[in-house]
């Protein structure tokens, strides 16, 4: 029945690792068939909450209960590294506890739902980022779960893929909880919001879509601030009166004591005004001004119907030139950028002495076993330990995480760390592959402004039209028309 509670958190507390609180006595429930957005600041612990639902993690206190007999499946943000060398069939086999005789047929049927054609023996790492996003969704759908958890499902998807996913979720008749920073995508099918606050470690539950919630939160904050201003005036009046009566001595000292007690009580009544996540401050990626060609693009290998075809480009890019590369998922955009980053002479000639900054969509340019400190220090031209902390703070990575391993960061924090390394590197050539993935939407205008103002040579790919529209583009290379 649609009104049944299918998921319930009862006074759940949970810490990730050592002294990293995520939830503090959180209680909420989700009804069967509802479609809910899970919102929260970068690093708040949204993915950890999903792990509690899937039983990958166990609460320190309280209880997480799923309706008896209900099944749960998750579409993750990224494919685990130990599965990248699996074939398609091996990848989907891991979705079931036992071997299934009908697995090939079910894979084909499910891939049709996510609009993807894939040979069963193809290796996962050979798929593009957008195709891997479809595989992640299909991995969850093939289990036909009663509760579908989707963690940033639009990352790497082109406009066609997002439209297809949106329509599927509109028609989906089971329970769905989605983490995403794409407000328009969420508003098209969800009708409730769970907000995880990174400061209080509480969950706030709202009806309505993302924009409704933002307005409600603004109104609550404004009301709390007005009430606190009123209380501050009253508190000061009581303190002033207490001082006057105390100075008069005698029996009036007892009155002064009562006034101070009243002031203290009013202090406790002040409302805890909710703190929103900080917006990334403005930043600029500096670079040395080089004269002459920075990179000469020679050829690109594109995929047509699964068959690679090498096409000539013959494009020279100088300083202060921004090149946007477009094309559908799977055509070879990420492969091309990766070949440029490794200075493949068949694809391009990069002028000697040019520093290349590379933002890879899966963050694999980061050493996950290194600390945040060592990662930032290693990216600096001139090593400065004090500056490491300043740069980290600038990109909203708190001091208590500096000595932690990169793997402990949330996906959003890893994205900000990558931008921090580019900021420290000061590259003359910037190569960006889907730089909006996992980044809080509040930060995107700041990042777009930094890239728009970048004076070096930039080659980038993005499937987020609003983001691309904020960046100066001097050249466009459409791989689909080559």
Q: Summarize the amount of helix as a percent range.
A: 25-40%
Note poorly predicted spans: none
Mean pLDDT value: 87
- Class inferred from helices and paired strands: alpha/beta
* Strands, total number: 17
Provide a count of the helices.
14
Q: Write the CATH homologous superfamily of the domain at 293-481.
A: P-loop containing nucleotide triphosphate hydrolases
**Name of the CATH class of the domain at 293-481:** Alpha Beta
Characterize the structure shown.
With 482 residues, this protein is of the alpha/beta class. Among the domains are: 5-71 and 145-214, 3-Layer(aba) Sandwich (Rossmann fold), CATH 3.40.50; 293-481, Rossmann fold. The protein has 14 helices and 17 strands. The chain has a six-stranded mixed sheet, sandwiched between helices. β1 and β2 form a beta hairpin. α7 runs antiparallel to α8, α10 (372-379) packs across α11 and α10 runs parallel beside α12. The termini are far apart. The model has no long low-confidence stretch (mean pLDDT 87).
